[in-house]
Design brief:
The protein is mostly helical. The chain has a single domain, classed as lambda repressor-like DNA-binding domains (434 Repressor (Amino-terminal Domain), Orthogonal Bundle). Helix 2 runs parallel beside helix 5 and helix 3 crosses helix 4.
Length: about 110
Protein backbone atom coordinates (compact mmCIF):
# COMPACT_ATOMS: atom_id res chain seq x y z
CA UNK A 1 0.00 0.00 0.00
CA UNK A 2 1.38 3.37 -1.03
CA UNK A 3 1.71 6.04 1.67
CA UNK A 4 0.31 9.44 0.78
CA UNK A 5 2.16 12.37 2.35
CA UNK A 6 -0.03 14.59 4.52
CA UNK A 7 0.74 18.13 5.58
CA UNK A 8 -1.04 19.56 8.61
CA UNK A 9 -2.94 22.74 7.72
CA UNK A 10 -2.68 25.97 9.66
CA UNK A 11 -6.42 26.22 10.23
CA UNK A 12 -6.70 28.88 7.53
CA UNK A 13 -6.86 27.45 4.03
CA UNK A 14 -6.17 30.91 2.56
CA UNK A 15 -2.86 31.09 4.47
CA UNK A 16 -2.02 27.56 3.38
CA UNK A 17 -2.64 28.56 -0.26
CA UNK A 18 -0.45 31.68 0.04
CA UNK A 19 -3.07 34.43 -0.19
CA UNK A 20 -1.74 37.94 0.56
CA UNK A 21 -4.34 38.66 3.30
CA UNK A 22 -5.45 35.23 4.50
CA UNK A 23 -7.21 36.40 7.68
CA UNK A 24 -9.34 38.86 5.73
CA UNK A 25 -10.19 36.20 3.14
CA UNK A 26 -11.21 33.72 5.85
CA UNK A 27 -13.30 36.39 7.60
CA UNK A 28 -15.11 37.20 4.36
CA UNK A 29 -15.71 33.51 3.64
CA UNK A 30 -17.21 32.97 7.10
CA UNK A 31 -19.42 36.07 6.81
CA UNK A 32 -20.64 34.91 3.37
CA UNK A 33 -21.39 31.50 4.85
CA UNK A 34 -23.49 33.15 7.55
CA UNK A 35 -25.42 35.10 4.90
CA UNK A 36 -26.05 31.80 3.09
CA UNK A 37 -27.31 30.24 6.35
CA UNK A 38 -29.66 33.13 7.08
CA UNK A 39 -31.03 32.94 3.55
CA UNK A 40 -31.63 29.21 3.91
CA UNK A 41 -33.24 29.51 7.36
CA UNK A 42 -35.56 32.25 6.09
CA UNK A 43 -36.18 30.46 2.80
CA UNK A 44 -35.11 33.48 0.80
CA UNK A 45 -34.51 33.22 -2.90
CA UNK A 46 -31.54 35.05 -4.36
CA UNK A 47 -33.92 37.69 -5.72
CA UNK A 48 -35.66 38.13 -2.35
CA UNK A 49 -32.38 38.31 -0.47
CA UNK A 50 -30.96 40.77 -2.98
CA UNK A 51 -33.98 43.01 -2.57
CA UNK A 52 -33.64 42.96 1.23
CA UNK A 53 -29.89 43.59 1.08
CA UNK A 54 -30.11 46.24 -1.64
CA UNK A 55 -27.96 44.35 -4.14
CA UNK A 56 -28.80 42.82 -7.48
CA UNK A 57 -29.33 39.10 -7.96
CA UNK A 58 -26.01 38.54 -9.80
CA UNK A 59 -24.17 39.93 -6.76
CA UNK A 60 -26.06 37.50 -4.52
CA UNK A 61 -25.06 34.68 -6.87
CA UNK A 62 -21.41 35.76 -6.71
CA UNK A 63 -21.56 35.91 -2.91
CA UNK A 64 -23.11 32.44 -2.67
CA UNK A 65 -20.48 30.99 -5.02
CA UNK A 66 -17.65 32.42 -2.93
CA UNK A 67 -16.64 35.08 -5.43
CA UNK A 68 -15.95 37.67 -2.77
CA UNK A 69 -13.46 40.02 -4.42
CA UNK A 70 -16.16 42.70 -4.76
CA UNK A 71 -17.13 42.45 -1.08
CA UNK A 72 -15.29 43.89 1.89
CA UNK A 73 -15.71 42.43 5.35
CA UNK A 74 -17.50 45.62 6.36
CA UNK A 75 -19.94 45.32 3.48
CA UNK A 76 -20.69 41.68 4.31
CA UNK A 77 -21.40 42.69 7.92
CA UNK A 78 -23.81 45.38 6.69
CA UNK A 79 -25.56 42.81 4.49
CA UNK A 80 -26.00 40.56 7.53
CA UNK A 81 -27.63 43.41 9.45
CA UNK A 82 -30.09 44.00 6.60
CA UNK A 83 -31.03 40.34 6.94
CA UNK A 84 -31.91 40.92 10.60
CA UNK A 85 -28.67 39.77 12.19
CA UNK A 86 -26.74 41.60 14.89
CA UNK A 87 -22.99 41.83 14.32
CA UNK A 88 -20.82 42.34 17.40
CA UNK A 89 -17.14 43.23 17.18
CA UNK A 90 -15.07 42.53 20.29
CA UNK A 91 -11.48 43.73 20.65
CA UNK A 92 -9.28 42.28 23.38
CA UNK A 93 -5.57 41.77 24.03
CA UNK A 94 -3.96 38.76 22.38
CA UNK A 95 -2.63 35.93 24.55
CA UNK A 96 0.99 36.41 25.69
CA UNK A 97 2.22 33.37 23.76
CA UNK A 98 1.02 34.58 20.36
CA UNK A 99 3.12 37.01 18.31
CA UNK A 100 0.27 39.05 16.85
CA UNK A 101 -3.46 39.54 17.10
CA UNK A 102 -5.93 37.80 14.82
CA UNK A 103 -9.39 38.25 13.37
CA UNK A 104 -12.00 35.59 14.05
CA UNK A 105 -15.68 35.24 13.17
CA UNK A 106 -17.74 33.41 15.78
CA UNK A 107 -21.42 32.79 15.14
CA UNK A 108 -23.82 32.02 17.96
Amino acid sequence: MKTIPVTQGSGNVFADLGFDQPEEELTKAKLASLIRQVMRLNRLTQANAGELMGVDQPEVTALLKGRLSGFSGERLMRLLTTLGQDVKITVRPKPLGRERGRIQVVAL
